[in-house]
Amino acid sequence: MEDLTVVDHPxxxxxxxxxxxxxxxxxxxRRSIKTIGTILAYxxxxxxxxxxxxxxTPIEKTTGYRYNKEVIVVPILxxxxxxxxxxxxxxxxxxxxxxxxxxxxxxxxPVNYYHNFPGGLHGAYTLVVDPMLATGGSGSHALKFLxxxxxxxxxxxxxxxxPEGIERLRKDHxxxxxxxxxxxxxxxxxxxxxxxxxxxxxxxxxxx
Length: 208
Ligand code: PRP
Hints:
Helix 5 (163-172) links the parallel strand 9 (154-161) and strand 10. The protein has helices spanning 10-20, 26-44, 81-90, 137-148, 163-172, 200-205, and strands spanning 4-6, 50-56, 61-67, 71-77, 95-96, 98-103, 110-116, 125-133, 154-161, 178-183, 186-187, 193-194.
């Protein structure tokens, strides 16, 4: 990957601690992931290109700005949905596409089961979002599929990332920057992130 941004901020650290804590209940889990989603979006969209436009305040004419590119947020189902609320609170103009990938529990290989993207992926500013970057298999698969479908300006946004997943994206998609709230230690034998926060999808949707 071209670059790695680890968002180091007291508010992120506090909310990440709430998410990691196994005693955190669903409502608090949802609040904290929404807050971090907003902060990650702030960093991911820092270089969104703008056009200058002329606007008129009640006092006089001045220079204003509008986005030069469409923003498309693509959560990797299901857990990626947990970050969408915070991101679209920050940029309500964003369109949302979906890609369904699950990780086979035995082989840990990604399986694609659904997609639905808005038109205009080519030329848009696409954020692929998933709270967990573990082996990187799901992320790499989703990025490949999006590129084949026309996306050409993509960033990957994750909540926590394992070094193994970062390495996988670096190798498979060196052109895709990664924005994450934490680089964790490693994966365990079940390919779960350590220390991690468990299964983000199950904790967000209450399907434990
Ligand atoms: C989890 C997570 C990622 C994937 C990460 O999804 O949300 O999509 O695993 O693992 P990887 O980097 O090794 O591919 P899961 O398969 O549990 O499905 P879910 O989102 O439906 O809970």
